[in-house]
Amino acid sequence: MNGISKNFGPVVALDQVDLTVEQGHIHAIVGENGAGKTTLMRVLYGAHPANEGSIELNGQPVNFRNPEQAIRSGVGMVSQHYAIIPELTCLQNLLLGAEPSLIINQRDAESRATDLATQMGFQFNWNQPANELSPGQAQKLEILKLLWRNAKILILDEPTAMLAPEDADLLYAKLHELTQTGATVLVVTHRLPDVMEHCDHVTVLRGGKLITSVPVSQTNPSQLAEQMIGVSVTQHTLTESHPGEPILTAENLTILGDKGQDAVKSASFVLHQGELVGIAGVDGNGQRELFHALMGLQPFQGSAILEGQNLRDLSTQQRIASGLRLVAEDRHHEAVIESWSIVENASLGLHRLQDLKKGLGVNREAQLALATAATEQFPTKFDNIRQAFRGLSGGNQQKVVVARALQQNPRAILAFQPTRGIDLYVADLVYRELIEATRKGITALVVSFDLDEIMTYCDRILVMNHGILIEVPPELRHDRQAIGRMMVGATP
Amino acid sequence: MRFLGWRQILLALAGFGLIVAALLIAGAVPAEAIQTVVERALTRPAGWRNIIKEATPLLLLGCSVFIALKVGLFNIGADGQFVIGAVCSAVVALNVPAPINIPLAILAGIVGGCLWAYPVGLIKAYRGGHEVITTIMLNNIAGFLTFYLVSGVLKDPKSQQPSTAYISDLSKLPNILENGPLRINFAIIIAILVVIATWFFLKKTTVGYEIAATGENPNVAKFSGINVNRIMIRTMTASGGVAGLAGALQVLAYEHRFYGNFSPGYGFDALGVALLAGGNPLGILASGTLFATIAESTNVLSRTGVPKGLSFILLGVLVIVFAAFRYRKEANRGSDS
């Protein structure tokens, strides 16, 4: 790819980026959110036409106008949000858009699919509905979809974001095998350990510009981090916590999942004043249900006491009034109303608190003050505090969502993937603010699928696997391998 | 408030253009027809009074639909709630001594409308039954049930038609002035006050904020500690109450009795009124008046031989044009991903 430029309106997403990828390599594209990694990949496989520049494939100039053309030439992408239709079976998903013939011979297709899966060392029950797949399996299915379409160049966007460390290693091993057979893999990621360990070549983008492109053997993580961010960052060092009184005590919580299974099995934990506790684990192991139950969005068995108040007796609104706060996982569907202004969103959920009421209505000055405070907690970029929320970038939206949970005297903050979609620098800031808040006498519980993040910032670590919550013993607190094993249910 | 500016003016102009076009199609000379409309409907007190009379139910039912729409429910059932409100009100007005029967009849209308809407909210909240289906069914039930009642137990024995007796003069809602050009009924004042109250309620109160949040995104509302089921049921019930009030006022101020096929379809016109109002309840004042004016204009024209169905064509085109504008704007917003 030569001199690729891409604008979205006035925003320059890519500025004269060159990229050369050798056949048979695993090539990492790294950069912060908004660096242009994903956009570059989308240009490559035809989802966005470039404003300038040219693309050559095996020496031939190509110009893909849509992903269908790209896949016909062997270029395909697995995006971060899987394009799997939950209502269809695995086989139907695999075939969708690449049906071998007008009338599908189920048995024939199934045996071919199984052959392909076996080559990759995957196993699928082809008639299983796709909504029962774990994120890791869904990703394997996505990769198979590309191979089914004879892709020779695979682009993977944040492939390990949802995987346990061991599954991630396994994935890279399979990718290596693929490259042995002549395939080329492009990996978009922000996880430097993955790059150092598994990739051959690395390209760094920052602010839509190419910063460097070197073999992995000629660089190191701190150099890469500096190149990604533009300034050198100091690794966060844990300050010692001095846990005080318990704030939230949960005993034997059992919570039903949406398929009737026990999503959380008899979980017990105590959150003390002054500590930030992290829950490590792979997505879909009950973290979501645990948080929802604590917020009053679904029922639970067992007991949960927030500073002497039994949560079972409190509605969601009353729990918020008692100081419980949730940083919801899914911004668009759980946390904010995008057509509303920043001001209106900043008070959403807090709108019944005493400070925000005035007679029958919402206290407009207090609402504005709250929004101002929330946007100042983290440096948030916006034109006008009354602009529609959807006008903010994803990172800035997330900052407001996290900052909102810190307003109006919270007692216990439940944060689900609080740094989702924000760049390293701000993610660091988010955790620092959370830690600082806990040091002032509150408590916080964080769910993250990024083990490094948990290990870097949390005072104590819990691991959740198949609904079972266990605490990482203090002596293993810094043992990444051991925690990784606990995440998949093995003995540490 | 921006909404009451150029957009409403444009709408009025567009309405005017449409009238001219439709008249041409109907075979009338536009200039003459417009002259007729201006002389008979728009410049004579009798014409104004008719417009105001027509506007009363449209404003209230427009409010009813608007309130439900705000919480994300499409209340097609305003017509049924209107009819039930009217029959309840007529029964009270006929059987309770005047003048305390006036407030009681109004209350009965509101309660009737509420009760007719409450199950819609319940079914929606707890069973996921779509409100469009349930309200359409309830409209039919309301129509047939009331027709049955006024053909039987409620029928005035002296009448040839399925109708109740007329309410006594003392039971009627009075006019503002009994003589002169202001011989218009208090009902319109109540309707305007309800529009303003709706604006206050939806735009200024905490409950209104929660209703809007629920309407925009029920899941986000739930995560924000709002009891989504409760607020849907209550809002739907309130919407029915306003429609019932419209029915009560229709009986007490204008019709003075209840009869079979009571509503000429006000509840459906109200869908257009609420849509045309855009995002602000105060817009109902403009859109309701526009609807009433068009109705009265075609009424006058029908006497010169232009078919009355013209108003339906006009309103239909108007609503479609407006909807196209509005939803194009929403589609353009797109997502930020």
Model description:
The complex is a heterodimer of chains A (492) and B (337). Chain A has 492 residues and is an alpha/beta fold. Chain A is 33% helix and 25% strand. Chain A contains 17 helices and 22 strands. Chain A has a six-stranded mixed β-sheet with strand order 6-7-8-3-9-10, with helices on both faces. In chain A, helix 13 packs across helix 14 (394-405). Chain B has helices spanning 6-26, 30-42, 45-70, 78-95, 101-127, 131-151, 187-204, 206-216, 218-223, 228-255, 266-276, 283-302, 310-333. Chain B has 337 residues and is mainly alpha-helical. Chain A binds chain B through residues 295-297, 315-317, 319-320, 326, 328, 333-340, 344, 348-349, 351-352, 357, 360-362, 388, 390-394, and chain B through 204-210, 213, 216-217, 219-220, 222-227, 333, 335-337.
Strand order of the largest sheet of chain A: 6-7-8-3-9-10
Distance between the termini of chain B: 31 Å
Q: Number of helical segments of chain A? A: 17
Q: Got a strand count of chain B?
A: 0
Number of domains of chain A: 2
Q: What is the count of DSSP helices of chain B, taking H or I runs of 4+ residues? A: 13
Mean pLDDT across every amino acid position of chain B? 88
The helix/strand order of chain B is: HHHHHHHHHHHHH
The 3D shape of chain A can be described as: globular
Please count the beta strands of chain A (DSSP E, at least 2 residues each). 22
- What is the correct CATH architecture of the largest domain in chain A? 3-Layer(aba) Sandwich
Specify the helix fraction band of chain A: 25-40%
Level-1 CATH class name of the largest domain in chain A: Alpha Beta
